[in-house]
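Bug report

Summary: structure tokens for histone acetyltransferase differ between web form and batch submission.
Environment: batch mode, default settings.
Steps: 1) Submit the sequence below via batch. 2) Compare with the web form result.

Sequence submitted:
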Amino acid sequence: MHRFVQSIDPVLKELGYCCGQQYIYVPSPMLCYGKQQCCEISRYSSYYYYNNPDPSQFNLSNDVYRFCSTCFNSIKTESIFIGDDPTQTLVEIPKKLFLLAINNKEKPEIMIDCIVCVRRWHQVCALHLDQIWSEGFICNTCIYQYNIKRKKNCYIAQKLIATDLSS
């Protein structure tokens, strides 16, 4: 795979694309709802989750509630009492409604399309944010080929205020 990427990278760059890489983000740790949310569900660990069908329910406003296997199995009753505010009435959820999962969901890097030539670029390779360039992404090939002027990014490191922490 590494050899393929090394050989395809220059070809794709010459064709006006960003690269031949496949960027993915590894699963991030999640917070366990047990033990006052002090537990962490690490990458590739199993956990139990409850999909809340009614987030407008009193004291149960999250879409998903997760428990690490240790906390889930330490609860010896057939139900789990959960709630957003422990000082309010907790909601009883049967343990059988919780599903087993593994924290292994990898996320691919977002792909964006050039609004001129429709070439696909990784968002990270393009250094593009819609909040800065709301008109859309224009790749470097189109900028040079069609002499397109792009709005300057005013959010650059040189414009940050220097403080004791930054020095």
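Above is the batch result. After comparison, the two runs are identical; trailing whitespace caused the diff. Residues 2-14 form the longest helix (13 residues). The chain has two domains: 2-23+110-159, 30-102.
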